[in-house]
Amino acid sequence: MQAGETAGCGVRLSTQEIQYVLTVAETGSITKAAEKLFISQSALSQAIMKTEVNIGAPLFDRDKKKLPLTEAGVLFVKNGAKIIHYMEQIERDIQKRSRLTQKQLRIGIPYYLGSQVMPPALKAYHQEYPEIQVLLLEKSSFQLEDELLRQAIDLAVLPLPFQSSKIIYEPLFEGPMCLLIPAGSPLLRFCRGDPGRIDLTELGDVPFISTDAQIGQRSAVVFDLMMKRAKIAPKTVFVSKNFSTVKQMVACGMGVALIPSVYVSEEDLSALGLVRILPLESQSYQWSVTVAHHEARPLSGVAKGFVQVLKSYFQQGAGE
Questions:
Q1: How far apart are CA 242 and CA 258, in angstroms?
Q2: How far, in Å, CA of 242 to CA of 126, rounded?
Q3: Which of 28, 143, 147, 289 would suit a FRET pair with 168, their CA atoms being 20 to 30 Å apart?
């Protein structure tokens, strides 16, 4: 039996599957539950149906709009909530013990996240775990994935996608990629609809500023993917490994850039005189940042504490 599974009368359920059912019951909607769980609606629906097959009874009345629980569903939620509570209590007890023995946590962070986004979260963690020494390893996303695979670090804060299926992750925050251009740019004439979106195919002759694929930055891979979706060969004139530098270069009129919208604040737009526009949905890409670890390296108590602090911090909107 795998970790987190419960068994009885031949039924095997993971705590994740139980949590899926509890979340659907709480929200009354597959759509809302999927958003809260950061998974697709189809994946959640399939997981719920698999659980119903495993227990041999429907959990929700699908003939009703708000997915009310069946009698079996009421029993499942009542007992499932107890299981989740007990598992959380076990984790809390283990965390307390781990704090007495582990004194160091090794965390991998990409360049921009390490310098701009993570410091307040790390401060919150230090206030909660003042006895733990945190060692930060700042490298490109691909390099950090290699560090995880070598189990040289405990965990890493990384954007999707991962190359290896051995990486386990939890989402922290996400947002679409956006086109960053100077305010008043003539490119605004290509903006259509409400909210305004731009067709990237109109930008075949426009100079682009990109991040560095040579050092393995995920954003460079996403840039290439979006260009392929738009079926254009971009004219990349400048390359940088730093999002802050990219934003400054766009503000100076040196080109335009595709950048995660969550990395562009309202203060950035105002101070630098920039505008961010979403590409057409067919050309878009959702930028998701996760906290990840190797499947063969279970998170220690202090590592789980870091994940909890981090998720709480970003759920309050710090990543936006």
A1: 13
A2: 26
A3: 28
Q: What φ, ψ does residue 44 adopt, rounded to 5°?
A: -70, -45
**Could you give the CA distance from residue 260 to residue 281 in angstroms, rounded to a whole number?**
15
Helix (H) and strand (E) counts in the chain: 11, 13
The pLDDT, as a whole number, for residue 99 is 53
pLDDT digits (tens, 9 = 90+) for 202-221: 898 899 998 876 666 788 88
Please give the Cα distance from 30 to 238 (Å, whole number).
Answer: 44
- Position 222 pLDDT exceeds 80: yes
Beta 167-182 vs 274-279: how paired, if at all? antiparallel
Separation of first and last alpha carbons in the chain: 39
pLDDT of res. 87: 81
Closest CA to 72 of 85, 87, 56: 56
List the alpha helices (DSSP H) in the chain: 15-27, 30-37, 41-55, 71-101, 111-112, 119-128, 141-149, 218-230, 243-251, 266-272, 301-313
Count other C-beta atoms under 10 Å from residue 191's C-beta: 19
Contact present, 125 and 305 (Cβ < 8 Å): yes
pTM value? 0.65
Place of tokens 């401060």: 123
Radius of gyration of the chain (CA): 22
Among 51, 45, 23, residue whose Cα is nearest residue 36: 23
171 vs 27: CA distance, rounded Å: 19
CA–CA separation, 196 and 194 (whole Å):
5
List the beta bridge partners of residue 240. 211
Residues contacting 285, CB < 8 A, separation 6+: 176, 177, 222, 225, 226
Outline where 129-217 has alpha helix (H): 141-149
